[in-house]
Design goal:
The complex is a heterodimer of chains A (248) and B (313). Chain A is built from 10 helices and no strands. With 248 residues, chain A is mostly helical. In chain A, helix 3 packs antiparallel against helix 9. The radius of gyration of chain A is 18 Å and the shape is globular. The chains are: A mainly alpha (248), B alpha/beta (313).
């Protein structure tokens, strides 16, 4: 398959799984806006507006992670209920193109939520060239590892109901327990150690540091980037070698 | 003429199937190109397992299989650019309309939009789907959904089409439309691997046939070859009152409405027909259908879900 055809396949998947379902059922958009904006509202009320910045930065991370939870459900549903993965496997479309296209299509659903957060990000004066670059980089990595993780899991699930069970665990382990919506210093010592096993901790630390919510030394920032890239690379390797594109 | 698909001692055991028999066992098969190759068998006979291995969707356990000269285990990419598949139990994505299912599938395969548009129009016309082109899949009947999937792969540029029970749930007219589309694909020198429960369909479309039973290849050849190889290649229908015991000396006897159906060898079939005519009974004589061959070889109907009895030689 040529690069041009790969791009065509990728964009067709965005159309199939992103644009057309939204055209036929616009409520999908509200579904994905609801969770991050609920958290934001909760933080705004409880902190009387003081911790709103944490809500904005955490909301962006949660939005990118929600791509992963949406993706694992869609991939599992398409694989088992529609046999769509089998149709795609027996075609020129390669696994990375399929996963990339599906992950991009999930991003389409997240655009309204991201738009709200970006507006707040700019409105509250957090947007500088440096903070924006850190934000984009960290969010791209979160989106990437969430995609790789979701694809691998989806090829093991036997039924879409298993993803419903897994999604709240996914959210808990990656967004609630790790300090995505608050500084890591709020956690007791043992919990800080536990949080270091979650890649979102490093992403949150970077974005919080980029907008001045916490002081982040240059060395800490470098380590955070290395760990975040390492986590992402590891999940991609697991996807490449362990995901079941072809059934065993 | 070359071979589109070749297998040697192909075996498949599903992981975790401890103690169970293999889904496919020692399958050696050469499927010629440019024809319809029919695979028939009861549920669980191994038809879908074979299709999925050849379509690079399923890992084989041992043996080998090549598609268009490429190994399914190591050269999947080279194969996948040249095949298309309608899996058993596949459903088109319910939120797309009929036109989008076909057109977007072709674009997904990398076809140029203008080419994809022209092929979509052609396939929808051929399968009488044009009037439904703007209808969402969720509002289609099961038969129409199946027809949309057939249109999708028949519209593709693939050289080999894997159609796993493509006409299940279709009414007789829709089935004939799919058959016509399949015949047209053959005129375009494409190869079709067709699995079906409908023996009339397999017989009407297939240049060669393979009969699977419990993961093994039981018979293979042209429909004429298959007839020649069965023990009772002729069928005699007798309408009227005759003692069953008397008929049993001529071959295998089945009761039918108003009489009996006897599968027999040529000389016995002729003798029986003569005897029945002498007694003034209504007689029909002819070569066995595929259903008859299946009954003869497997020992029960293709629709029978029960365990198979041991079959003689």
């Amino acid at each position: 398959m040529s690069e041009r055809n790969r791009l065509r396949s990728l964009l067709t998947l965005v159309q199939i799984n992103g644009l057309i379902p939204i055209r036929t059922q616009p409520l999908y958009l509200i579904n994905l806006v609801a969770s991050p904006l609920s958290f934001l509202f909760f933080i705004w009320i409880v902190s009387r507006g003081a911790d709103l910045a944490y809500g904005v930065m955490g909301g962006m991370v949660l939005t990118m992670l929600s791509v992963g939870t949406g993706l694992q459900s869609d991939l599992t549903h398409y694989r088992h209920d529609m046999k769509f993965q089998d149709v795609v496997v027996a075609s020129p479309v390669e696994a990375p193109v399929y996963v990339g296209g599906m992950a991009l299509s999930e991003l389409v659903y997240s655009l309204p939520a991201l738009a709200v957060f970006v507006i707040l990000f700019v409105y509250y004066g957090y947007a500088t060239p440096e903070s924006s670059a850190v934000l984009v980089g960290a969010l791209l990595l979160v989106w990437s590892f969430a995609t790789a993780f979701a694809f691998t899991l989806a090829t093991y699930f036997q039924d879409v109901r298993e993803t419903w069970m897994f999604s709240p665990i996914f959210s808990l382990v990656l967004t609630v327990l790790p300090p995505v919506y608050y500084p890591i210093s709020y956690l007791p010592g043992w919990a800080q150690v536990a949080a270091r096993f979650s890649p979102t901790t490093y992403a949150a630390e970077l974005v919080q540091g980029a907008v001045g919510l916490q002081h982040l030394s240059f060395d800490t920032a470098v380590i955070d980037w290395i760990v975040l890239v390492g986590f992402t690379a590891a999940l991609f390797l697991i996807a490449a070698f362990k995901a079941r594109w072809k059934d065993p | 003429m070359g071979f589109a698909i070749r297998t040697e001692h192909l075996r498949k055991v599903y992981p975790g199937a401890h103690g169970a028999s293999a889904a496919l066992e020692d399958l050696t098969l050469d499927i010629p190109d440019g024809r319809v190759y029919g695979v028939i068998g009861r549920n669980g006979a191994g038809k879908t397992t074979f299709v999925r291995i050849a379509a690079t969707q399923l890992v084989l356990t041992s043996g080998s299989a090549t598609v268009l000269g490429h190994d399914v285990a190591t050269e999947e990419r080279a194969i996948r650019t040249r095949i298309a598949c309608v899996p058993q139990e596949a459903r088109p994505l319910y939120f797309l309309n009929v036109d989008e299912v076909v057109y977007l599938y072709l674009k997904l395969r990398g076809l140029d939009p203008a080419d994809a548009r022209a092929r979509t129009k052609d396939a929808l016309e051929q399968l009488s789907l044009t009037e439904f082109r703007r209808r969402t899949v969720s509002r289609l009947s099961g038969g129409l959904r199946r027809r949309v999937l057939c249109a999708m792969v028949l519209a593709s540029d693939a050289e080999i089409l894997f159609l796993d029970e493509p006409t299940t749930g279709l009414d007789p007219i829709a089935r004939r439309q799919v058959w016509e589309a399949i015949r047209r694909a053959i005129r375009e020198r494409r190869t079709i691997l067709l699995t079906t429960h409908y023996l009339d369909e397999a017989e009407a479309l297939s240049a060669r046939l393979a009969l699977f039973e419990r993961g093994r290849l039981v018979l293979e050849g042209t429909p004429e070859d298959l007839r020649a190889r069965v023990r009772y290649p002729y069928r005699v229908t007798i309408q009227g009152s005759t003692p069953r015991e008397e008929l049993q000396s001529y071959g295998r006897v089945s009761a039918i409405e108003g009489g009996f159906l006897v599968f027999a060898r040529e000389s016995e079939a002729r003798d029986l027909a003569r005897l029945a005519l002498e007694r003034g009974l209504k007689v029909g004589l002819g070569p066995v259908s595929l259903e008859g061959i299946f009954l003869d070889v497997v020992g029960r109907s293709i629709e029978d879900e029960g365990p198979t009895p041991e079959v003689e030689g």
